[in-house]
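Dear Dr. H.,

I hope your travels went smoothly. While you were away I took the liberty of generating a structure for the chain from your last submission, since the lab meeting agenda had it listed for discussion. I wanted you to have the full record in hand beforehand rather than looking at slides cold. The sequence, exactly as received, is reproduced here:
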Amino acid sequence: MSNIGFRGQVISTEDESTGASKMTADTIIFRYPREAIGSKSLFLVQPTERAIVVVQGQIAADLPPGSHNIQSPGNAVSSFLSKLRYQQLPYDTLVFFVSTTRHEVKVTGLSQTDDLVPVEYETAAYFRVNNPSSLVTNVQFGGNYFKDQDLGIYISPIVDQEVSSILNQVKLTDVYKKFGDISTAVTAALKQFLSEIGIDLISVRVTKLLPQDPELRRIIQLRDLGIPINDSVRLGLARVLADQQNPASVNMAIGVPYFPNLATLVNLSDGVFRALSTKLSGQTNEQEKGSGGGQ
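The corresponding predicted structure, in token form, is as follows:
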């Protein structure tokens, strides 16, 4: 049985043994782990939280920051129980603590451009819960935590659809001109969806938009530094050759042909060709004389 926040019937997000809060920076909802809550319980809600009390599947109260005694006549839970004619809380009472601070969720994915180049993207959405009751009734999660990454799973199909609707219609060379369009499209779609589950979207920004191929990324970076595209490609190939410890990497980088052995020589000038022919002919005659002398 968990030892969280049940000290003297005090229900809170505070860990009894360490005093640390279970509402970490990436936690949106923390579900109190015990359902057997007595009628003398005291709800303690921190300034950055709201507590949603669910009794037998119905929301009994949305408690603001502060301390809330169940036995107090003005308590929302007491009023709810009086209607049900309960003298104490039933065993199936759930308490959800919802964070009201600003959160960030990142969504990553893979799309492709009109010229079929795979592109990795990442978007960051900043939000705040403005309707805790609506959020609790619209999300499902296992365990006692609903975190930023869990919300990311909810919204990733929406983000992917909006990002792909733009990237699929542009060439790779024009992708980086679409940052604003992508942010606008994702913001509009997320704002509508999140408002339906009790979340206020603050802003959205694109944090990464890069080709999936790392070599293509480097070529684009060189191009954006002002290097002509042909030279950027050559320098990219030179780096690959250098990783392979190929001596031709230097020649590739400076744009000078490299011939590792004589058999690869092409387009020789007439003078060089005659000189090589004379030398090879002389070597052949000497070999023939040597063979004749031996007989």
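Two observations you may find useful: Helices lie at 76-84, 132-138, 148-167, 179-196, 214-224, 229-243, 248-254, 270-294. The mean pLDDT is 83.

With kind regards,
E. W.
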